[in-house]
Amino acid sequence: MKQGILLYAHNSSDVDYLKIATVAGFLAKKNLNKSVSIITDSDSLNFSKTQDYYKQFESIFEHIILTDIEHGKNYRNLHDGAESKTVPFINHNRPLVYDLTPYDQTLLIDADFLIFTKNFNKYFDLDANLILCDEVYDIGSRLKYEDYYISQTGPKMYWATCMLFKKCEYVKIFFELSKYIQENYNYFANVYNYNPKMYRNDVCISIAKHIMDNFQNNDENCFERLNLTIDKDVLVSNKENSLTFLLSY
Q1: 6, 41 in Cβ contact below 8 A?
Q2: For residues 80 and 71, what is the distance between their CA atoms, to the nearest angstrom?
Q3: Three-class SS of residue 173?
Q4: Mean pLDDT across the chain, nearest whole number?
Q5: CB 155 within 8 A of CB 208
Q6: Would the CA dihedral through 44, 46, 49, 50 be positive or negative?
Q7: Do residues 199 and 92 lie in contact, with contact meaning Cβ atoms separated by under 8 Å?
Q8: Run of H or E residues at 175
Q9: pLDDT at 81
Q10: What pLDDT does 238 receive?
Q11: Are 79 and 131 within 8 A, CB to CB?
């Protein structure tokens, strides 16, 4: 069984996500000792070829998988020090990963998900077709109710930050269902009572899992708690296996 790590990275007008993914891909490859590939688009890739980091980018990723994207669909608040602005970002093609991955067993991670230990290797050996993240910890203790549940009346939140899956019929159906939920996001917002203004892969996979678990909360086959920080926090120093942040509230 071919195992590997896969990242999504699509540049926006304000953020070079391929540069960030180069760091994430390097750490994943170094600490897990597995092949790493990336899904991106032609415009992002062509821009990266003009940047100083491209030689490292090219050496890290075994496969560079190009896919079509839709611009201007999603917006988020981007913080840069004391400044904040609303910027577009691209995350609509995540449910297509089952067909795009070059691996039989894939660890899918966000472009800004940094792996500093070998701990994730143990999950590749579990007898599980799909492993999701159901618990996160903000180092500044700033999480809200909607970070744990998709709505006041909805099921538990599973974070799309990372997921491990095998090629099998169950997982294929899971991603097909995720795609269907994405295409009917406003309808499911009425059913599950969440705000559909910004599309979230977290919400999409949480509903898919809820449906496939016969509308029950099932925490079987989940990662251990993951640590996160937000873009308001300032990176003070970095060492080989750790980062130090100045927190913002």
Answers
A1: no
A2: 22
A3: helix
A4: 92
A5: no
A6: negative
A7: yes
A8: helix 169-183
A9: 61
A10: 80
A11: no
Extract the tokens encoding 121. Answer: 């290797």
From CA 170, how far away is CA 172, in angstroms rounded?
5
Contact of 159 with 226, CB cutoff 8 Å: yes
**CB of 178 closer than 8 Å to CB of 95:** yes
Tokens matching residue 48 = 């990266």
> Among residues 44, 47, 160, which one has the least CA distance to residue 97?
160
Residue 71 is predicted with a pLDDT of 58
Concatenating the DSSP letter of every residue in 32-58 gives: H--EEEEEE-HHHHHHHTTSTTHHHHH
The yes-or-no verdict on residue 72 having pLDDT over 60 is no
Report which of residues 238 and 226 the model is more confident about: 226
pLDDT band with cut points at 50, 70 and 90 for residue 82: low
Distance, in Å, from the CA atom of 129 to the CA atom of 125, rounded to the nearest integer, reads: 11
Mean pLDDT on 145-158: 93
**What is the spatial distance between Cα 234 and Cα 241, in angstroms, rounded to a whole number?**
17
Q: Could you give the count of Cα atoms lying within 13 Å of 57 in the half-sphere of its Cβ?
A: 25
